[in-house]
Amino acid sequence: MLDQRNPYVDMARGTAVASAAIMLILANGCVSHGPPPPPPPYRSISIEVEDTVNPPFDHRFIDKIAVVQFSSYASQPGAGKIMADRFEQFLVEKGAYTVVSRMELSHLLREANLSLEGYLSPDAARRIGKMAGVSALLVGNVENYDMQETSWQEVVGRQWNQAKYSYDPIYGSAQKKTATIVVTVKVINTTTGEVVWSKTFRGSYWRKGPPSYVSEESDYDMFEHAMEEALEDAWLLTPYGKKRQAWVRIPRDYAAGTCAHVVAVLPDSQASRIGLAPGDVVLTYGGRQVVSGEQLQSLASAGADSQYSESSVELVVFRGSASRSFTVRPGPIGIQVQTLNVAR
Fold first, then answer.
1. Which terminal residue of the chain, N or C, has fewer Cβ atoms less than 10 Å from its own Cβ?
2. Which DSSP string do the residues of 280-317 spell out, in sequence order?
3. What is the set of domains in the chain, with CATH numbers?
């Protein structure tokens, strides 16, 4: 009923009722979303993997390797020895191959009256490989091993000038020092004498500021920092790779406690040709469930058995959020597989 004395009262009442109705609708909308979405068809497992994605060359021919003295940068005659020492130390620490020390290699070369100065021909590489019993040589050329220094004057403060009624700049000395290392290494197959891989490694480190600050770090320490950066990709020399965190997906209903996780696909292999990729999880091979890298290798090498006498075998992997089927030939697939513990 309208209030004849004050029509604004009825307007306020109507507004209040409408507001209450709107709030009720909004509340219902916020509370009720319908049925919850279904869970994804996979489980994600956090792991630490060796980052060997797309290895630059096939490491399998290497069992023993020797690092040959690197050629030095013109202004730093000792740079070749320093870099060869660091690459040799890296290979020894990684433990991927048996490393013949340069001292032992030099002794063998002196006995055979051979020199490694200058260009290493394919014939010389084959002779050294046979003499030292190594399947690969690592040779290098230090293209830059230099410390550059620049100095200048810059504004370091302001001083009030009463006569000019303004601030005058105060200048001070500034300096920048940059340590730079550039080295190119090559891997030589001593059976063929051919270079199978070559890469240029670069590293730099600089300090900038007042001379007192720049001089706090020695040239030796600055070159060490530059060398650490240059060697960041040295893991490419080994089949092990660089450690990183990754997520691996497996089917949500996966019941086994372990799985066969593909960490690398070898170049020029049937795996690379059919499209297998790092991160795939192998589920079955020829209809058999695969739960480890060792089991997959055993099944793949059983090509001569009657069960695998056919010319092709179905390989099923889990990728992303679904299973994918591939056809492979019995025998080596061309993948590096890691067995992961995925137990709940």
1. N
2. -EEEEETTEE--SHHHHHHHHT-TTSGGG-SS-EEEEE
3. 53-240 (3.40.50.10610), 251-341 (2.30.42.10)
Q: Which letter does DSSP use for residue 238 in this model?
A: S
Tokens of 314: 């179905």
Burial code of 19-34, b = ≥16 C-beta within 10 A, e = fewer? Answer: eeeeeeeeeeeeeeee
Mean pLDDT of the chain: 85
Of residues 153 and 31, which shows the higher confidence score?
A: 153
Compute and round to an integer the Cα radius of gyration of the chain.
Answer: 33
Q: pLDDT tens for residues 229-264?
A: 999 888 888 877 666 677 899 999 999 999 999 988
Burial class for 11, CB neighbours closer than 10 Å (0-12, 13-18, 19+) = exposed
- Indicate the DSSP class of residue 255: -
Alpha helices in 169-292 (DSSP H): 211-214, 219-230, 270-274
Alpha-helical segments (H) within the chain: 7-31, 79-94, 102-111, 122-132, 211-214, 219-230, 270-274, 293-300
Contact between residue 269 and residue 276 where contact means Cβ atoms under 8 Å apart? no
Burial 299-317 (b: 16+ CB within 10 A, else e): bbebbeeeebeeeebebbb
How far are the Cα atoms of 140, 165, 187, 200 from residue 197, in angstroms, in the given order?
12, 68, 5, 11
Which pLDDT belongs to residue 251?
Answer: 94
Output b/e per residue, 132-161; b: 16+ Cβ within 10 A: bebbbbbbbbbbbbbeeeeeeeeeeeeeee
pTM as predicted: 0.57
Which tokens belong to 78? Answer: 């000792």
Predicted local distance difference test score (pLDDT) of residue 73: 84
The SS3 of residue 241 is coil
Strands 281-285 and 258-265: antiparallel
